[in-house]
From TrEMBL:
Belongs to the prephenate/arogenate dehydrogenase family. Keywords: Oxidoreductase. Pfam families: PDH_C (PF20463), PDH_N (PF02153). This is Prephenate dehydrogenase. It comes from the Bacteria. InterPro entries: 6-PGluconate_DH-like_C_sf, NAD(P)-bd_dom_sf, PDH_C, PDH_N, Preph/Arog_dehydrog, Prephen_DH. The keyword Membrane does not apply.
Length: 324
């Protein structure tokens, strides 16, 4: 354990997410980084106390893999071959192929911070993206209590998490198709509409908050978005089909104002749950099977909003909106 009780951390990949985490950790404790782009490494080293190299990263007590999703499996195998003994956390946005690729014997836990903003590369790094972020822990239920506790201490402590939910890899990918990957496609579609037919030139001046919100993530790097959504194409195609049917229904509702109002009220309930108040429920001590306990908490619609070692968790739920 590093000085002051903070674990040493290694980061593989210094794009937007990896570099933002490096800035967040800053000089809090031993930090090692690696990236194939020497400019990204130099950028991070200028702003942190990080050392550089595979040996230092592999020796860290916690290793965060923040490379593009298509190469995460290769990185996990490389860490296994290098004898990494610390807890390895990948932050890939699609989990099934990553979990399947993880080598036996590697202390690996797949997590997903819902953090980031438009932009790419180390130069777009922003340590504030971690403040209060929700994290998904992808668990199968047999992970060691020590590894899960270490991950919880890290995300709530150094990473500043606001909430943690747990689900298996398939549920994660199906859920992210709806709450993350589909919105990227919708923003891109709206951006393409503006290119194809923006109407009067005054449109560029009249676009208000609704348009800016709807297109914000379309200003992300296209290659990075493609790397994120293509590996989840099956779940995303299914989610897109549901959206297409809902859009067609609302268009048809234009001829039936009463049904349109009812459907818009229902939409308000769904949209409001995203920003609903967080209501603390209880604090409990989990005596054993921490992974299974977290999965059960999330199945009940609650989240972990705090953790005190070795096994005390604070729970909360989202308030349920009922009317507009």
């Amino acid at each position: 354990m590093a000085e002051f009780g903070r674990p040493s951390v290694g980061i593989v990949g210094l794009g937007h997410i990896g570099a933002s985490l490096a800035l967040r950790l800053g000089r809090r404790g031993p930090l090692a980084v690696i990236d194939e782009d020497p400019e990204a490494v130099a950028w991070v080293r200028e702003r942190t106390s990080a050392t550089v190299g595979w040996d230092a990263v592999s020796a860290a007590e916690i290793v965060v893999v923040a490379t593009p999703t298509p190469v995460v499996g290769d990185v996990l195998c490389a860490l296994g071959e290098r004898g990494a003994r610390g807890l390895v956390l990948d932050v890939a946005s699609v989990k099934r192929p990553v979990v399947d690729a993880a080598p036996a014997g590697l202390r690996h836990l797949s997590v997903h911070p819902m953090a980031g903003r438009e932009g790419h590369g180390a130069a777009s790094a922003d340590p504030s993206i971690w403040d209060g972020a929700s994290w998904a822990f992808v668990l199968h239920g047999s992970e060691s209590d020590d590894d899960v506790a270490t991950a919880l201490e890290f995300v709530f402590g150094d990473a500043g998490a606001g909430a943690v939910v747990a689900l298996d890899a398939t549920a994660h990918d199906e859920t992210l198709a709806v709450v993350s990957h589909l919105p990227h496609l919708l923003a891109a579609a709206m951006g393409r509409v503006l290119v194809a037919d923006s109407g009067h030139p005054a449109a560029w001046w009249l676009g208000s908050g609704s348009l800016r919100d709807a297109t914000r993530v379309a200003r992300s790097d296209g290659a990075r978005v493609a790397e994120m959504v293509v590996p989840n194409r099956d779940a995303l195609t299914s989610a897109a089909s549901v959206f297409r049917a809902e859009l067609e229904r609302l268009v048809a509702d234009l001829e039936a104002p009463a049904r349109l109002r009812a459907d818009l009220d229902e939409a308000w309930v769904g949209a409001s749950r995203v920003v609903a108040d967080v209501v603390a429920t209880e604090t409990v001590e989990v005596r054993s099977d921490l992974a299974r306990a977290l999965l059960a908490v999330s199945e009940a619609g609650e989240a972990v909003i705090g953790f005190v070692a070795p096994r005390t968790v604070a729970l909360a739920r989202r308030a349920t909106p009922t009317t507009s």
